[in-house]
Amino acid sequence: MWWWLATPIELVRAPIDPAAKLECVSYAPFRDDQSPLIATTMIPPEQIAEDLAQLAKISKCVRTYSVQNGLDRLPGLAAKVGLKVIQGIWLGNNRLKNLAEINVAVGLAKEYPDVITALVVGNEVLLRGEMTASDLAANIRLVKSQVKVPVTYADVWEYWLRNREVYDAVDFVTIHILPYWEDFPIRARFAAAHVDAIRKQVAAVFPGKEILIGETGWPSAGRMREGALPSRTNQARVVSEILDMAKREHFRVNLIEAYDQPWKRQLEGTVGGNWGLIDATQRKLKYPAGVPISNFPRWKIQMGAGMGLCVLIFAVALLTLRRRPWTPRLMSWIAVAVSATAAGILLGVAADKLCSESYGWGNSLRWSLLLAAGIISPLLGANALMAGRALPTFLELIGPRPGRTGSILTMMLGLTLLVTTLIGTETALGLVFDARYRDFPFAALTMAVVPCWALAWLNRPLVGVRPIAESVFAGLLVIAAIYVGFNEGPNNWESLWTCIVYAMLGVTLWRARAVQIQG
Known about the structure:
Elements: H1 2-5, E1 24-26, H2 45-55, E2 61-63, H3 74-81, E3 84-89, H4 95-111, E4 116-123, H5 133-144, E5 151-156, H6 157-162, H7 165-169, E6 173-176, H8 188-205, E7 211-216, H9 232-249, E8 253-255, H10 265-272, H11 299-323, H12 330-357, H13 360-387, H14 395-398, H15 408-433, H16 442-458, H17 468-488, H18 493-510
Parallel strand pairs: 1-2, 1-8, 2-3, 3-4, 4-5, 5-6, 6-7, 7-8
Helix pairs in contact: 2-3, 8-9, 11-12, 11-13, 12-13, 12-16, 13-15, 13-16, 15-16, 15-17, 16-18, 17-18
């Protein structure tokens, strides 16, 4: 399975061709905990200079979005390494801040006429609803009256079609085409064709001016949207195909973006921080020339860890039989084998998702606990299956003292189930009420649920009453699974997989039985 998961892809051309530099790439300088959402953030010029020296090796130009946070120093630093700059002017609903931004950018355009090739007056300000088209056009004309370089505005392509009056004010049209974020998401294999079709559609509406694709690309990690799957191989494929098409058809493309931006996860979840061509932490190209492109570059380590866990699960089952010699049913061994195989395959996937989806202590704690439950559950489940013990109820953990279990292994298994249930329910409700940026925890959740599912069917108590807590959680999980499955659609396999596991967990809890304590 890991050989299949890690199979590298072959591309017509490398995403980053050392023999042909990129036309332009979006640049934001923020690393680690740095964020433009904190107004006082100031990026040292040495940090920007280090990035630009690296980018000058792969690109002719960088596009910026603002002059704030120390970015007013960028044109001067770009000149030293031979980079051109498409200078951004950030506009919002604060007129005074807008004027201050415009004044600084205009000054830079006059100071560095050989570096700044164009000014972008506003980025997606119409999309955000922070300015009217007429006010935007007035700001564009204000800038044009003060500079000699071309002036444009950048927004999602639909907003150009809805606000055609902006077209008259600009020197060229800058459109954003992000197939992943379309209202009807586009699969990676159709992304380049979609970009070309939209470019031609906009060019037909605005025939008199150049159409610059100001943002396009694909995320390397994050949640699936219908059939659009973020992954390393999909990002490499989309970028490669778009660049190849741009070269053939002679149009300019600015890729989003140079570096992964962790701070964007606060706004857009995991996917928001993973559009870069260069890793945020190590500052290395994700796709160096001549290196096979795989979704799991560390697959041998991940496979080895999974095999180790798989062997350990079988070892626990055998040791349990040595202490309690009896002949378990064939189905018990099959359940152990399924749990061990699922855990062995998915451990590397779950660990990879933990690294990519953890941002902030809250997310890190949640996904770490779920992965821990996914590792512990098959181990304790194997022990319980071989010992003939039933899955404990929550009452045995936190109920009246006379009904609590005295077995440490039973308590640990019950606590694992409780953690899995709480995190599973929280993520399920999140996908119901606020789904757009939430990840699907299918890997770690499957590892944790499969052994409990097996115990619920094979070692179920014959007597007792259904506990209220388990019943409530079961109902929430099953209802959420049905809703999320329909809401995300049949093309989203991450959603369908996760919903199946939610339903399995719900049925597992529904089958719980507790001994009734007489008062």
